[in-house]
Amino acid sequence: MKHINTSRFGKLLIPLLLVFALAQTSNAQTTYKLGGKPVMTLYGTSTLHDWTMTAHTFTGNAQITFAEENQMNYIGALTVILPVRNLKSEHDGMNDNAYESLKADDYKDIIFKLTSSKITSTGTNKYQITAGGSLTIAGVTRAVNITAAGQVNADGSIGFSGTVPIKLSEYKIERPSFFLGTMKVGDALTLNFSVLFVR
Length: 199
What we know:
16% of the residues lie in helices and 55% in strands. It is α+β, with helices and mostly antiparallel strands.
């Protein structure tokens, strides 16, 4: 019966295990949450003038993988939850009408959930992210595609910014009107975002 030289086998096995462990670590998925000073701004048109509503308070989390230090290569999950009533304009009356149209009493949150992503490097620690996901507004969920810019900062935080086009009709939302009906909101809106995820 042939005997295996266990000491020699062990010497060979340990380096292999170390290489495997390092490979797993370098590709480890890291959990992030929304931090810093996030901003979401909803831009719209009307029969009288353009308008905006802005939110600075919302939540989010993400699972992000790095191939090497600060080299982002995969977003496994990402969710952002925006309470409807955190969107504010300069006019209380407009806010109330917007909340009513967005059915804020029944559906308090606007929710984005990532379903797919493609990451392309555009420079040192800078990326273009092509993301697919689901956007839920007023209880209606639609598939959306988003192109965002991403940057990994020296402290390990990750910034994302981009634009999401929205049509109220696709979410079965009645366009709100103001000033006794003389001003009516257009169907097409744009949601701009600038967010920072931290470990």
